[in-house]
Design a protein that fits this description.
The chain is of the alpha/beta class and about 525 residues long. The protein is built from 17 helices and 20 strands. The strands form five sheets. The protein has a six-stranded mixed sheet, with helices on both faces. Strands 17-16-18-19-20 form a five-stranded mixed sheet. Strands 10-13-14-15 form a four-stranded antiparallel sheet, with no helix packed on it. The longest helix is centred in the middle third of the chain and has 24 residues. It is elongated and about 95 Å long. The structure holds adenosine-5'-triphosphate. The site of adenosine-5'-triphosphate has 16 residues, from α1 and β2. Belongs to the cytidine and deoxycytidylate deaminase family. Belongs to the tRNA(Ile)-lysidine synthase family. It comes from Deinococcus caeni. Keywords: ATP-binding, Cytoplasm, Hydrolase, Ligase, Metal-binding, Nucleotide-binding, tRNA processing, Zinc. It catalyses: cytidine(34) in tRNA(Ile2) + L-lysine + ATP = lysidine(34) in tRNA(Ile2) + AMP + diphosphate + H(+); adenosine(34) in tRNA + H2O + H(+) = inosine(34) in tRNA + NH4(+).
Length: about 525
C-alpha cells in the first residue's frame, strides 16, 4: 500500500499506526511548491520515513502554475495533482491500495462547504474511490493527537491552515468553533450527514445506471436524473459545478431546450429530453443524388410532403428536436417539388423520394404501414384502433394482430398478444428471439411482458401512450433487471398512429353526446 503523508498529525499518525499493525507501506509526499519553504516538509517526511525504515517517494509540482494554465482554483489543482502523483506512485510500487488520513474533522468541513455552495449532491469525502481508501473518516482529531503524544512523535503544522483566504482554513478557524460552542457534537453530526447522504447517493446512482436509453427523462425523479446527468458528464470527462447539474436536469425534466457552457468552455445542449455532449452530427446523403435535386441548407418557406400532407420544414425540425442553433447545419436535398430528404438521424424522406433516388424502402416504415392497416381494421370494427405485426429474423411479416377486446368482451385481447401468438404459430416456436414486434401504440405492461417472455429482440412503436405505456409512458418496465432486454425504437410514424386514435376517440365522443341528447 501507498500512504499519502503530508507531515501533518493525521497522516503521520496513520503511517505509524500502519507500522504498529505490521503493514509495510510506502510513504509518498507531494511538494506542491505553494510556499517558499515547502521543500522543508518534504525533507521532514523523508527523514521520518528513513527513521521508520519505510520506502519513500516524492516529487515537486508547481501547483500554482498548473492551476493558472488550466483555469482551476488552487485547492482543486492541488488535490488533482496529489491524486495523480499518489496513483503513479502506487503503480510504480505495484500497490493495490492508496491510503489517506482524512478524519472526521475533514469530513465535517467538507460537508459544511458543500452545503454553503449549494451542492445538489451531498456525499462528503468518500471512504473508497478507485484504489483510494480513507479508513479514518469517523475518527476525532483528539484521538490522533493523543496517539502521537503517547509515542513521542511530533508533526508539522501547515501554515496555510491558518491562512483565512482558504475556505477550509476559514471554516476550521472561524466557523467550526462558533458552531461547536452551541452544538458540541457538530463535527460528529456533519460526518453522520455525509455517511447517510453517501448511502442515499449510492442507491440513487444505481437507479440512474438502470435508466434505459429510451426512457423519457420527464418521468424520472429529479434525484435520479441528476445522478444520471452526473454520470454522463463524468463518462465524457467533463468538469461541472452544482448549477450546471441543476440547469441540465431541470431542462431534461421540463422537456425544454437549454445550452450550458461548462468549465473549460465545453458546450452541452439539452433538447427534446436528450442530453447532447458533442455537436450533433448531421448525415450527408450516402447515395447518388438524383438529377434536378440540389444539396443546400434551409431557406424560408421550405416545405416537405409527408404521408399526412405537406408540412413546413421548420415544424419537422421542431418535431425532431433539432436545436435552433443547429438548423442551418442540417443538409437538405431539394427539388422543384420541395424538400426531398432531410439529413437527420434517421433521415426524413418526402413521399416518393426514396423511389426517385432508387433507395430501398425503410423496413420499419413499411412494417408500421402493415401495423397501421391492422389498426384501421380495428377501427372499422369499432375497436380501439391498435394494430401490430411481428417481423421474423429475415424481416418478413410472420404475425399480425389487432385489438379485439370489444368483440370478445375480454380486455386482454390486445393487438400485440394476437400478433405474438400468430408469429409463434407461423415459426413453430414460442421463442421469438431475433424477431421484431411492431405496434402502432406504445405497449402496455401486459403486452411488453409478453414480448419479454417471448424474447422478442426489438420492439418498435408508433404513438406514445401516456395513459398505459410501459416504455416510459406511465412506467419503464425495462428499468428492472431482466435477463433479456430488447432494443426499442419509438415514434415510427407516430403522428399517423396518434391521429388514428384521436379520430376514433373523437367519433366515439360525438356518438356519446348524440346518445345523451
Ligand atoms: N503533500 C501531500 N503529499 C501526500 N499526501 C498528502 C499531502 N497532503 C495531504 N495528503 C494526504 O491527504 C490527506 C488529507 O489531506 P489534508 O490536506 O486534509 O491533510 P493535512 O491537513 O495537510 O495533513 P494531515 O491530514 O496529514 O494532518 C492527508 O491526511 C494525507 O494522507
Amino acid at each position: 500500500m501507498v500512504v499519502g503523508v503530508s507531515g501533518g498529525a493525521d497522516s503521520v499518525a496513520l503511517l505509524r499506526a500502519l507500522l504498529r499493525v505490521g503493514a509495510r507501506p510506502v510513504a509518498a509526499h507531494l511538494d506542491h511548491a505553494l510556499r517558499p519553504d515547502s521543500a522543508e516538509d518534504a525533507a521532514w517526511v523523508q527523514a521520518l520515513a528513513a527513521r521508520l525504515d519505510v520506502p519513500f517517494a516524492t516529487t515537486r509540482v508547481d501547483v500554482a502554475a498548473v492551476a493558472a494554465r488550466r483555469g482551476w482554483n488552487t485547492e482543486d489543482a492541488a488535490r488533482r495533482l496529489r491524486y495523480d502523483f499518489l496513483t503513479r506512485t502506487a503503480k510504480a510500487h505495484a500497490a493495490q491500495v492508496i491510503l489517506t488520513a482524512h478524519t472526521r474533522r475533514d469530513q465535517a468541513e467538507t460537508v459544511l462547504t458543500a452545503l454553503l455552495r449549494g451542492e445538489a449532491i451531498l456525499h462528503g469525502i468518500p471512504a473508497e474511490r478507485g484504489r483510494v481508501r480513507r479508513p479514518w473518516l469517523d475518527l476525532p482529531r483528539a484521538d490522533i493527537e493523543a496517539f502521537l503524544r503517547a509515542q513521542g512523535q511530533d508533526w508539522r503544522e501547515d501554515p496555510t491552515n491558518d491562512d483565512l483566504a482558504y475556505t477550509r482554513a476559514w471554516i476550521r478557524r472561524e466557523v467550526m468553533p462558533v458552531l461547536t460552542a452551541r452544538y458540541p457534537a457538530a463535527g460528529e453530526a456533519l460526518a453522520r450527514v455525509a455517511r447517510t447522504q453517501a448511502e442515499d447517493d449510492a442507491a440513487l446512482t444505481s437507479q440512474a445506471a438502470r435508466l434505459s436509453a429510451h426512457a423519457p427523462r420527464r418521468s424520472v425523479p429529479p434525484a435520479v436524473l441528476r445522478r444520471w446527468v452526473r454520470a454522463e458528464l463524468g463518462r465524457a470527462g467533463l468538469d461541472f459545478h452544482a448549477p450546471h447539474l441543476d440547469a441540465l436536469t431541470g431542462a431534461l425534466r421540463a422537456g425544454e431546450t437549454a445550452h450550458v457552457t461548462l468549465p473549460g468552455g465545453r458546450d452541452v445542449t439539452v433538447t427534446g429530453g436528450q442530453l447532447h455532449l458533442t455537436p450533433q452530427p448531421y448525415p450527408e446523403p450516402d447515395f447518388p443524388i438524383p438529377e434536378g435535386w440540389e444539396r443546400r441548407t434551409r431557406q424560408d418557406g421550405d416545405r416537405v410532403t409527408l404521408p399526412g400532407g405537406t408540412r413546413k420544414l421548420s415544424d419537422v425540425l421542431t418535431d425532431r428536436h433539432v436545436p435552433r442553433a443547429d438548423r442551418d447545419r442540417v443538409p437538405l436535398l431539394v427539388s422543384d417539388q420541395g424538400v426531398q430528404w432531410v439529413g437527420l438521424q434517421p433521415p426524413v424522406w418526402a413521399t416518393g423520394a426514396r423511389e426517385a433516388a432508387a433507395q430501398p424502402p425503410d423496413p420499419l416504415h413499411a412494417a408500421m404501414g402493415e401495423a397501421l392497416a391492422q389498426a384501421h381494421e380495428a377501427a372499422a370494427a369499432q375497436e380501439v384502433p391498435v394494430g401490430a405485426v411481428v417481423l421474423g429474423p429475415d424481416g418478413q411479416v410472420v404475425g399480425r394482430g389487432r385489438n379485439t377486446s370489444r368483440e370478445h368482451g375480454d380486455m386482454t385481447r390486445h393487438a400485440e398478444l394476437a400478433a405474438l401468438r400468430d408469429a409463434a404459430r407461423t415459426l413453430g416456436t414460442p421463442y421469438l428471439s431475433g424477431c421484431t414486434l411492431v405496434v402502432t401504440l406504445e405497449p402496455c405492461p401486459m403486452c411488453l411482458g409478453a414480448a419479454l417472455e417471448a424474447r422478442v429482440g426489438h420492439v418498435v412503436y408508433g404513438a406514445a401512450n401516456p395513459k398505459a405505456g410501459a416504455l416510459g409512458g406511465v412506467t419503464d418496465l425495462l428499468a428492472a433487471h431482466w435477463g433479456h432486454v430488447p432494443t426499442v425504437t419509438g415514434a415510427v410514424r407516430g403522428h399517423e398512429a396518434a391521429r388514428l386514435l384521436k379520430d376514433v376517440f373523437g367519433r366515439l365522443r360525438e356518438h356519446r353526446h348524440r346518445d345523451d341528447r
